[in-house]
Design goal:
Shape: elongated
Order of helices and strands: HHHH
Number of strands: 0
Strand content: under 5%
């Protein structure tokens, strides 16, 4: 495959992805979330995970810690 065929194939794939995006159930919401998280996702996801873990630790107490440890024990 030469370079021009490769570029044509990439353009075709881009058109297919654009069609999929337009036929998504909530295209505006989906595209907003993708653009929002695509730049620097760790800036949002790491604090969110930390807050969720604090909330769950507060609600469940020691059972939360045991649950997390059980998850990792089952894969060893």
């Amino acid at each position: 495959m030469n370079e021009s065929e490769f570029i044509l194939k990439l353009q075709e794939k881009a058109r297919e992805q654009e069609k999929i995006l337009q036929t998504a159930p909530f295209p505006k919401i989906f595209s907003f979330v993708v653009n929002f998280l695509s730049h620097h996702p760790w800036r949002y996801l790491i604090p969110l995970a930390f807050i969720i873990s604090l909330i769950l630790r507060g609600l469940l107490g020691n059972s939360f810690t045991n649950f997390i440890l059980d998850i990792f024990r089952s894969h060893l």
